[in-house]
Write a structure and sequence with these properties.
This protein is an all-beta fold. It is about 0% helix and about 25% strand. It has no helices and 13 strands. The strands form 3 sheets. A 5-stranded parallel sheet has the order 1-4-7-10-13, with no helix packed on it. It is elongated and about 45 Å long.
């Protein structure tokens, strides 16, 4: 199947907008923006390290704080029209390559029907090693006339995992659907959960 990879500018959050008449994503295909958002401890949901705790990035949900919940990244952005990428986890100054990166943005504008049988994922990436935090999930935002899909279809904006107990996982991202008609056969799955 075919896959489209979307990436945001890692520092200023500029993201692509996909405009079309109709979109069908089949079971063996999809669109992904995993770790395609803010990088290198950047983003409005990234916090400064505190003591022995390095927080996960926040966005739709707060990032995990590891040893101390105060250091989880904050929430930001729109509930109904999410167009922001996820934020990176906080990397320790001694190891800036450790944090996970925020999820990117999958933004669809279709005049007709969006049919989802495959995957659209804007997850944050996992912490790479100790002394980082997971990246927060990004955005999946679909505007269309008719929305259809099956139980093989998945919209995902999950936070990235931390690998150390002292570090925090990424908060969940945001998913929003703006449609006029919901097809009778729809059965799409959703996940914007925060990570461990």
């Amino acid at each position: 199947g075919s896959w489209i990879t979307a990436r945001c500018d890692s520092t200023n959050a500029a993201s692509p907008l996909f405009v079309m008449s109709n979109l069908t994503i089949e079971t063996d295909g999809g669109m992904e923006a995993i770790g395609g958002g803010y990088q290198w401890a950047r983003g409005p949901g990234t916090v400064l390290p505190g003591g022995t705790s390095l927080g996960g990035g926040g966005y739709g949900g707060r990032g995990g704080g590891g040893n101390d919940p105060r250091f989880g990244g904050p929430t930001y952005g729109s509930l109904t029209a999410p167009v922001d990428p996820g934020s990176a986890g906080m990397g320790h100054s001694a190891n800036l390559f450790a944090p996970g990166w925020g999820g990117g943005v999958l933004r669809i504008q279709a005049a007709g029907t969006v049919t989802l049988r495959g995957v659209m994922a804007a997850n944050g990436s996992d912490e790479l090693k100790v002394y980082g935090g997971g990246g927060s999930g990004g955005s999946v935002y679909i505007r269309c006339h008719t929305l259809a899909g099956t139980n093989t279809g998945l919209l995902s904006a999950r936070g990235g995992n931390a690998i150390a107990a002292s570090d925090g996982g990424g908060g969940g991202g945001r998913i929003a659907l703006d449609y006029q008609v919901l097809a009778p056969s729809h059965n799409i799955r959703f996940s914007a959960a925060g990570a461990a």
